[in-house]
Amino acid sequence: MRMTRRTFVAGVAAAGLPGAAGAQDVGQWFPLVGDDGRAVANTRLPVELTTEVEDLPGALWLGSDRRDLMLVEFYDFNCPWCRKAAPDLEELLTGTPALRLGLVNNAILSPESSEAARVELALQRLGRPTSVHRFHKRLFERRGIIDGQKALEVAEEVGAPRGQVEAIAASPEVAEDLKAQMRLAASLGLMATPSFMVAGAGILGYPGPESLRRVLADVQRCGRIGC
Protein backbone atom coordinates (compact mmCIF):
# COMPACT_ATOMS: atom_id res chain seq x y z
CA MET A 1 0.00 0.00 0.00
CA ARG A 2 1.30 3.47 -0.86
CA MET A 3 2.40 5.33 2.27
CA THR A 4 0.45 8.58 2.68
CA ARG A 5 -0.36 10.72 5.70
CA ARG A 6 -3.96 9.48 5.51
CA THR A 7 -3.01 5.79 5.64
CA PHE A 8 -0.37 6.52 8.27
CA VAL A 9 -2.73 8.29 10.64
CA ALA A 10 -5.34 5.59 10.02
CA GLY A 11 -2.76 3.04 11.17
CA VAL A 12 -3.24 3.67 14.88
CA ALA A 13 -3.12 0.19 16.42
CA ALA A 14 -2.91 -1.56 19.75
CA ALA A 15 0.51 -2.97 18.94
CA GLY A 16 2.16 0.09 20.46
CA LEU A 17 4.97 2.31 19.24
CA PRO A 18 8.54 1.89 20.52
CA GLY A 19 9.77 4.90 22.44
CA ALA A 20 6.39 6.60 22.66
CA ALA A 21 3.50 7.18 25.01
CA GLY A 22 0.60 6.28 22.73
CA ALA A 23 -0.21 3.41 20.37
CA GLN A 24 0.50 3.72 16.69
CA ASP A 25 1.37 1.26 13.92
CA VAL A 26 4.87 1.48 12.44
CA GLY A 27 4.59 2.96 8.95
CA GLN A 28 7.69 4.40 7.32
CA TRP A 29 8.39 7.08 4.71
CA PHE A 30 12.12 6.45 5.20
CA PRO A 31 13.62 3.20 6.59
CA LEU A 32 14.72 4.63 9.93
CA VAL A 33 16.05 2.38 12.69
CA GLY A 34 16.16 3.40 16.34
CA ASP A 35 18.95 2.87 18.83
CA ASP A 36 17.19 -0.34 19.93
CA GLY A 37 17.33 -1.77 16.41
CA ARG A 38 13.60 -1.45 15.83
CA ALA A 39 11.85 0.34 12.98
CA VAL A 40 10.96 3.97 13.69
CA ALA A 41 7.56 5.20 12.51
CA ASN A 42 7.82 8.24 10.25
CA THR A 43 5.69 9.96 7.66
CA ARG A 44 5.73 12.83 5.20
CA LEU A 45 4.06 15.95 6.59
CA PRO A 46 2.11 18.51 4.54
CA VAL A 47 4.25 21.60 4.00
CA GLU A 48 1.29 23.92 4.51
CA LEU A 49 1.11 22.68 8.11
CA THR A 50 4.82 22.38 8.91
CA THR A 51 5.34 26.07 8.18
CA GLU A 52 2.81 26.98 10.88
CA VAL A 53 5.24 26.03 13.64
CA GLU A 54 7.33 29.15 12.97
CA ASP A 55 4.51 31.40 14.21
CA LEU A 56 3.12 29.03 16.84
CA PRO A 57 2.35 30.95 20.06
CA GLY A 58 4.29 29.74 23.09
CA ALA A 59 6.79 27.55 21.25
CA LEU A 60 10.27 27.64 22.80
CA TRP A 61 13.13 28.03 20.33
CA LEU A 62 16.70 27.16 21.27
CA GLY A 63 20.05 27.08 19.49
CA SER A 64 20.71 28.57 16.07
CA ASP A 65 18.61 31.34 14.56
CA ARG A 66 19.03 29.76 11.11
CA ARG A 67 16.36 27.46 9.64
CA ASP A 68 18.73 25.15 7.73
CA LEU A 69 18.66 22.44 10.41
CA MET A 70 15.49 22.53 12.47
CA LEU A 71 14.12 19.87 14.82
CA VAL A 72 10.81 20.32 16.67
CA GLU A 73 9.76 18.10 19.56
CA PHE A 74 6.10 17.69 20.56
CA TYR A 75 6.10 16.51 24.18
CA ASP A 76 4.04 15.87 27.29
CA PHE A 77 5.51 16.48 30.75
CA ASN A 78 4.13 13.13 31.98
CA CYS A 79 5.53 11.13 29.07
CA PRO A 80 8.37 8.85 30.28
CA TRP A 81 10.00 8.80 26.84
CA CYS A 82 9.91 12.61 26.72
CA ARG A 83 11.67 12.61 30.09
CA LYS A 84 14.27 10.25 28.70
CA ALA A 85 14.73 12.39 25.60
CA ALA A 86 15.09 15.71 27.44
CA PRO A 87 18.77 15.44 28.51
CA ASP A 88 19.69 13.82 25.20
CA LEU A 89 18.23 16.76 23.30
CA GLU A 90 20.25 19.14 25.46
CA GLU A 91 23.44 17.25 24.53
CA LEU A 92 22.41 17.23 20.89
CA LEU A 93 21.83 20.97 21.01
CA THR A 94 25.22 21.60 22.60
CA GLY A 95 27.03 19.33 20.15
CA THR A 96 25.29 20.64 17.00
CA PRO A 97 25.88 24.39 16.67
CA ALA A 98 23.76 24.61 13.49
CA LEU A 99 20.70 23.09 15.17
CA ARG A 100 17.56 25.10 15.81
CA LEU A 101 15.44 23.18 18.35
CA GLY A 102 11.75 23.93 18.85
CA LEU A 103 9.82 22.67 21.89
CA VAL A 104 6.04 22.41 21.61
CA ASN A 105 3.56 21.18 24.21
CA ASN A 106 1.28 18.30 23.28
CA ALA A 107 -0.35 17.65 26.63
CA ILE A 108 -2.45 14.65 25.64
CA LEU A 109 -1.80 12.20 28.48
CA SER A 110 -3.65 13.74 31.43
CA PRO A 111 -5.25 16.89 32.89
CA GLU A 112 -2.11 17.22 35.03
CA SER A 113 -0.05 17.47 31.86
CA SER A 114 -2.21 20.38 30.71
CA GLU A 115 -1.74 22.12 34.06
CA ALA A 116 2.05 21.86 33.76
CA ALA A 117 1.98 22.99 30.14
CA ARG A 118 -0.03 26.09 31.05
CA VAL A 119 2.58 27.07 33.65
CA GLU A 120 5.32 26.79 31.04
CA LEU A 121 3.28 28.87 28.59
CA ALA A 122 2.68 31.46 31.32
CA LEU A 123 6.44 31.79 31.75
CA GLN A 124 6.72 32.31 28.00
CA ARG A 125 4.20 35.15 28.23
CA LEU A 126 6.36 36.77 30.91
CA GLY A 127 9.04 37.11 28.24
CA ARG A 128 11.74 35.06 29.99
CA PRO A 129 13.07 32.55 27.42
CA THR A 130 16.14 31.70 29.52
CA SER A 131 13.93 30.99 32.53
CA VAL A 132 11.57 28.91 30.38
CA HIS A 133 14.47 26.77 29.20
CA ARG A 134 15.67 26.22 32.77
CA PHE A 135 12.11 25.47 33.85
CA HIS A 136 11.70 22.94 31.04
CA LYS A 137 14.86 21.05 31.99
CA ARG A 138 14.14 21.07 35.72
CA LEU A 139 10.53 19.97 35.41
CA PHE A 140 11.56 16.93 33.39
CA GLU A 141 13.99 16.05 36.21
CA ARG A 142 11.10 15.79 38.68
CA ARG A 143 9.70 12.34 39.43
CA GLY A 144 6.13 11.20 39.82
CA ILE A 145 3.07 12.85 38.30
CA ILE A 146 3.87 16.31 36.99
CA ASP A 147 0.99 18.70 37.66
CA GLY A 148 0.37 22.40 38.06
CA GLN A 149 1.65 22.57 41.64
CA LYS A 150 4.96 20.92 40.79
CA ALA A 151 5.27 23.20 37.79
CA LEU A 152 4.66 26.28 39.94
CA GLU A 153 7.32 25.10 42.40
CA VAL A 154 9.84 24.82 39.57
CA ALA A 155 8.79 28.22 38.21
CA GLU A 156 9.65 29.69 41.62
CA GLU A 157 12.98 27.86 41.57
CA VAL A 158 13.94 29.62 38.31
CA GLY A 159 13.05 33.01 39.79
CA ALA A 160 9.54 33.64 38.47
CA PRO A 161 6.89 35.26 40.72
CA ARG A 162 4.55 32.39 41.60
CA GLY A 163 1.38 34.46 41.97
CA GLN A 164 1.86 36.17 38.64
CA VAL A 165 2.66 32.90 36.86
CA GLU A 166 -0.38 31.21 38.41
CA ALA A 167 -2.67 34.04 37.29
CA ILE A 168 -1.33 34.03 33.73
CA ALA A 169 -1.53 30.22 33.56
CA ALA A 170 -5.27 30.45 34.31
CA SER A 171 -5.88 33.08 31.62
CA PRO A 172 -7.85 32.51 28.40
CA GLU A 173 -4.79 33.60 26.40
CA VAL A 174 -2.68 30.74 27.73
CA ALA A 175 -5.56 28.33 27.15
CA GLU A 176 -5.59 29.42 23.51
CA ASP A 177 -1.81 29.05 23.24
CA LEU A 178 -2.03 25.45 24.45
CA LYS A 179 -4.95 24.69 22.14
CA ALA A 180 -2.99 26.03 19.18
CA GLN A 181 0.02 23.85 19.98
CA MET A 182 -2.06 20.70 20.48
CA ARG A 183 -4.18 21.45 17.41
CA LEU A 184 -1.08 21.62 15.22
CA ALA A 185 0.20 18.29 16.59
CA ALA A 186 -3.19 16.69 15.89
CA SER A 187 -3.38 18.17 12.39
CA LEU A 188 0.07 16.78 11.63
CA GLY A 189 -1.02 13.33 12.84
CA LEU A 190 1.57 13.32 15.64
CA MET A 191 -0.49 11.14 17.97
CA ALA A 192 2.34 9.87 20.16
CA THR A 193 4.65 11.62 22.61
CA PRO A 194 7.28 12.45 21.95
CA SER A 195 7.03 13.14 18.24
CA PHE A 196 9.47 15.10 16.13
CA MET A 197 9.19 17.24 13.02
CA VAL A 198 12.30 17.54 10.87
CA ALA A 199 12.90 18.24 7.16
CA GLY A 200 9.23 17.79 6.26
CA ALA A 201 8.95 14.47 8.09
CA GLY A 202 7.18 13.41 11.26
CA ILE A 203 8.93 10.91 13.53
CA LEU A 204 6.68 9.21 16.07
CA GLY A 205 8.27 8.03 19.28
CA TYR A 206 11.79 8.55 20.55
CA PRO A 207 14.32 6.75 18.35
CA GLY A 208 17.24 7.47 20.70
CA PRO A 209 20.07 10.01 20.58
CA GLU A 210 22.26 8.18 18.06
CA SER A 211 19.37 7.72 15.66
CA LEU A 212 18.51 11.42 15.91
CA ARG A 213 22.14 12.32 15.24
CA ARG A 214 22.06 10.21 12.08
CA VAL A 215 18.82 11.86 10.99
CA LEU A 216 20.27 15.35 11.48
CA ALA A 217 23.48 14.38 9.70
CA ASP A 218 21.42 13.16 6.72
CA VAL A 219 19.39 16.36 6.70
CA GLN A 220 22.61 18.37 6.55
CA ARG A 221 23.98 16.11 3.81
CA CYS A 222 20.98 15.70 1.49
CA GLY A 223 18.06 17.66 2.98
CA ARG A 224 16.10 14.51 3.94
CA ILE A 225 15.88 12.34 7.05
CA GLY A 226 17.50 9.49 5.11
CA CYS A 227 20.00 9.72 2.23
Helix tally?
9
Shape: globular
The count of β-strands is 6
Unreliable residue runs:
1-16
Mean pLDDT reading = 90
| Class computed from helices, strands and strand pairing | alpha+beta
State the helical fraction. Answer: 40-55%
Kindly summarize this structure in a few lines.
The chain is 44% helix and 13% strand. With 227 residues, the chain is an alpha+beta fold.
Report on this structure.
- By secondary structure, this protein is an alpha+beta fold.
- It has nine helices and six strands; from the N terminus they run αβαββαβαααααββα.
- It has helices at 5-9, 47-50, 80-95, 111-125, 129-141, 148-157, 162-169, 172-187, 209-222; strands at 41-44, 60-63, 69-75, 99-105, 195-198, 201-204.
- Strands 1-6-5-3-4-2 form a six-stranded mixed beta sheet, with helices on both faces.
- Strand 5 and strand 6 (201-204) form a beta hairpin.
- Helix 4 packs across helix 7.
- Mean pLDDT is 90; it is low at 1-16.
